[in-house]
Amino acid sequence: MVEHRGFSRFVPHIVLCIGVAIIAFPVYLCFVGSTHPQDVTSNGQMPLTPGPIFFETYYKTLFVGSSGSTREPVATMLVNSFIMACVIALGKISISIISAFSVVYFKFPFRMAAFWLIFITLMLPVEVRIYPTYKIAADLNLLDSYAGLTVPLIASATATLFFRQFFMTIPDELVEASKLDGAGPMRFFWDTVLPLSRTNIAALFVILFIYGWNQYLWPILITTRDDMQTIVIGIKKMIVTADALTEWNVVLATAMLAMLPPVTVVVLMQRWFVRGLVETEK
Amino acid sequence: MATVELSSIRKVYPGGVEAVRDVSLVVPNGSFTVLLGPSGCGKSTLLRMIAGLETTTSGECKIGERVVNEVEPADRDIAMVFQNYALYPHMSVYDNMAYGLRNRGTPKAEIDKRVREAASLLAIEDFLSRKPRALSGGQRQRVAMGRAIVREPQVFLFDEPLSNLDAKLRVTMRLEIRRLHNRLNATSIFVTHDQVEAMTLADQVVVMNAGRIEQIGAPGEVYKHPASRFVASFIGAPAMNLMPGKIAEAGIVETPAGRLPYDKNRFHAAGEVEVGIRPEDIHAAGGADGILFTPELAEELGATRLLHGSFGDTPVIIAIPASGTVHEKKEMRLSIDPAAVHLFDKVTGRSLVR
């Protein structure tokens, strides 16, 4: 660590403050915009202090909905997004932890082939396989359903890889000690592997929750009904480009609301998150 | 308690590496047997085969009256202490010890009784609620032993349990393991590459090399009567001096050190041989007679002093009491007791003892 004296002590702070300002200012502006009537924002004279209609806007946004092309209250969208993000995150974690467990701890024919097949899916994100995936989802009647929103996004090579690397750092002696202690593979999984992976699971949950929350392309394809749409889609639909006036206060309030859950998840889990990524103690 | 009997055990790894070649061994009931050898000699593999963690390529492994080749490790009635302790990091000390019993469906009261007994035996009662990471190396080792003790197994297996400890702790734990063995009176098999551990702990030392057993015997026996050149050079610190020799007549061997008498009633030899003499069996001769030795370097060990030098061209180490001063480079005269001369076959390395 370099020790600074005098003026140079403040340089890092100044740099950090500038960074924070660059990130925080648009968010602040978004908040300010959500508290002014739509005509104030629309005429291009954006004020820099919060306006008078904070409660009205947020009430309307959450429970009434905009009068634009989507009339669904944002509360519904929040619920949809939350369900989608949680199911994707938990689904990815459960499937990948099981597949990583089998690849690392069991010897079966074509084990490495199975691993590489999983690995190859890294090269096939939804955007690449969008048509066949959509066709399958449509044929299975998954349009406008939570299953349709989440299942195609769950298979995950990244998380499998992540858990595989972690499992390989668990000492072999622990498996052997479990064998001697009379614990079969499932017992070993529940009693040893799962508790040891707690911090990793938490870290992955944060990453995958945000991944799920930010999904845009897939939900826009798979949902047509307003009551199934997610908040990210909702924002897009509220911005009217044709003849009508965009209700900017509602749009900006929705954007603010859309930010809250991911921020909450990160704030609540950041300790686990950091530990899960850096912890080495076994 | 049980006898462990291995007959013609072999282990060939996929890829053809033969780690254990035709090993037969009896570990008597209640004995403390140490498998000793350099790394890669197959001693750990052998132990792991007894534990059931490695499959046996051929041969038969018997614990007590039962052939256990196909028996799962958990059902072999053994307990093992690993080199890196292998404690479950997320469980408390108590749970670490109780886990195996719980998996076997032992009643709760019984588990509690056994865990507390083992804890008091090992003086770890105060740590029962701690996690392993809050313990020192020595304490972790005790917990690992506690985990083995609560199972009340027929055989204890130790896989180099002391090598992760610092030198001082190793000595204390060594004594403690021996004391524990005397108290529990169970059959123990202990793997180590440290000959001091082997000598101090064992009733029976099994010296292994390249997948084979070189010699089985009591610690004093393998030291005094090594069955092969390998055992002679592996046991004893510093190692036995080995030099080429030629039998001149019965009882006299011609070496770089000159003509040395040997015990012709013990050794039956002719022609070219390998002569072995322990550093501690070479003494300073009183007068001007004796073997000429040129010291080059002295190592002070406190009670003894090691002199590195040579007999003619052959490098030799001798150990002499550390009294008086030694002038390096100053030639001295040495004598060797005929009873301390060992002879080995030049080709096979086996001892030429009758």
Give a summary of the structure in a few sentences.
With 282 residues, chain A is mostly helical.
Strand line-up of the largest beta sheet of chain B: 6-7-8-3-9-10
Order of SSEs of chain A, N→C? Answer: HHHHHHHHHHHHHH
Instruction: Report the helical percentage of chain A.
Output: 55-70%
Kindly provide the radius of gyration of chain A, computed on alpha-carbon positions and rounded to a whole number of angstroms. 24 Å
Question: How much β-strand is present in the residues of chain A?
Answer: under 5%
Mean pLDDT metric of chain A: 86
List segments of chain A where confidence is low: pLDDT < 50 over at least 5 consecutive residues. none
How far apart the termini of chain A lie comes to 28 Å
CATH topology grouping of chain A: MetI-like fold
Shape of chain A: globular
CATH topology of the largest domain in chain B: Rossmann fold
Mean pLDDT across residues of chain B: 89
Say how many strands of chain A there are.
Answer: 0
Query: Structurally, how many domains make up the residues of chain B?
Result: 2
Number of domains of chain A: 1
Which architecture of the largest domain in chain B per CATH? 3-Layer(aba) Sandwich
The first-to-last residue Cα distance of chain B is 37 Å
Main structural class of chain B:
alpha+beta
**Class inferred from helices and paired strands of chain A:** mainly alpha
In DSSP terms (H or I, runs of 4 or more residues), the helix count of chain B works out at 8
Query: What is the count of β-strands of chain B?
Result: 20
How would you sum up this structure, described in words?
The complex is a heterodimer of chains A (282) and B (354). Chain A has a single domain (11-17, 20-278), classed as MetI-like fold. Helix content of chain A is 70%, strand content 0%. Chain A starts with 10 loop residues before the first helix and ends with a helix. Chain A has 282 residues and is an all-alpha fold. A six-stranded mixed β-sheet of chain B has the order 6-7-8-3-9-10, with helices on both faces. In chain B, α2 (93-103) packs across α3 (108-122), α2 packs parallel to α4 (137-149) and α3 crosses α4. Chain B starts with a strand and ends in a 9-residue tail after the last strand. The model of chain B has no long low-confidence stretch (mean pLDDT 89). Chain A binds chain B through residues 171, 173-174, 176-177, 179-183, 187, 191-192, 195-196, 281-282, and chain B through 51-53, 72-75, 78-80, 82-90, 99-100, 103-104, 133, 147.
